[in-house]
Specification:
Helix content is 46%, strand content 10%. It is of the alpha/beta class. Helix 6 links the parallel strand 4 (117-122) and strand 5 (148-159). Helix 22 (467-477) packs antiparallel against helix 23 (488-501).
Amino acid sequence: KPDASLSAYWFEECPETGSERQLEDDESTQLLAPMITLAHRRHGRRGAVIGQGSGMSSHFLLASPGVEELVTLEIEPAMVEGSREFYPANRRVFDDPRGRIVYDDARSYFAAAPEPFDFVFSEPSNPWVSGVSSLFTRQFYEMVRDHLSVDGVFGQWLHLYEISDDLVLTVLSAIHSSFGDYEVFLTSDTDMVIVATTGERLPVPDWTVFGSSALSADLCRVTLPTPSMLEAARLIGRRSLGPLLDSWTLQNTDYRPILDLGAESARFLGYRADGFVGLSEDRFVPAAIVTGRRVPPSADSVSPTRYVPRMVSLARGTRIRSALRSMKDPTSRDPAGLEAPPDSEFVARTETIAAWFSSLDGAEPPLDWQAWIRELGQVEAELYGGTLGYIEPGFYEAARGYVQRVSGPPLAGNVIEFRAGLAGWDFAAVEAAGKRIAANVMSDDPAIEPDVYLDGMTMAMLARGDAKSARESFDRFEPLGSRYMDDLRLRLLNAYIEAAEDGSLELATDHE
């Protein structure tokens, strides 16, 4: 099983011209995880990295001119020797005088470290490797916390492949009880970084860390991540997880090594933390309602990585909207449409969407209303995928006008109102329309996915302060969905209802 893979082009000269590449495979995590951590402590001078790996994480961190000292901890000398095969791509970890490699166990090192660090980034091996899970326990996090400076930050990499949502939660629970605040970012479709702070509130990230001249030179072959794309990598944080983790009893500790015992089994069975990944894939995310976090469309038509779902969806939506404008007005030259050469699948799909829009101007009903309703949801997801709490009013106005003009069935109009309410976080509209389509959702051929309906109706009722109705709706429609009961998204919904029942749920007022 390879770790820390790197494409051959990292060893080539920077091109003078030509299209930029997207980050591939492990490259995305090797860049984003350490730099997202540093962005929350932009002017950190003293840092540590746990795990040499390929050496790329330390190399990228040393690109920051503000870092004065970086200690890379590695327990196995052969790992460092092996990483020399990546030279000169990782040259700073070996050549930069500000960095030094220390051969020691991380827990042993921090037990004796005399001076505090401004940031620590931990990227050890997978926890199914013998002994590694001790670097994911509450006791270890408390040790690191005590060796951080005031408002220091700690970044923890964790994989989402060959692991379950519950096992990931045992790690987050340990961080939840050890640090004042934290946020989770996705760095690929199967990797994430948890950034925690000793302070009460995690500092706002300063994304200019990606703009240093040294790092820009490193990334001369790839698409540079922009602030809007980096914000799209944000997954969930303490406020959204609090209702679940405040009472979570399965915590990974030295004395109860749940991760150590469960990781091997999860790997063998091929589990995947689908709930966490879904937070970046889903069009509607209840956790975002708790914080009021909206994600608008991005101007970027190319994602820096092909593996973070919300980044990819935002970029694809930008390209589709640009292509549709060009089809409507061939004389326009939208810069967003020129950055990425279209492939045949993209062109075909865009033409299908354009034809669907054209049909809204007609006077003939579709041959199959159920198919039309599903296409409505698919078109919206492609045009505005990656956004949260956002929709262009004209999109659903055109759909409403068409249904009224051709005397469409009430179901079509009600689904439009439900989806429009979800997209714009109009929960009064969601609840009203949701009640009218409840019978259809319970049928053998629902016009809207039961999981989407469950998420929307639960949060609509909670936004109105009606915990009793939210519980009744959850119990009624949860069995119709496709998620397993240990899916993070179901656990969060249940936790939000319980918090509302005892009066402790606090929802942001942004959507009210």
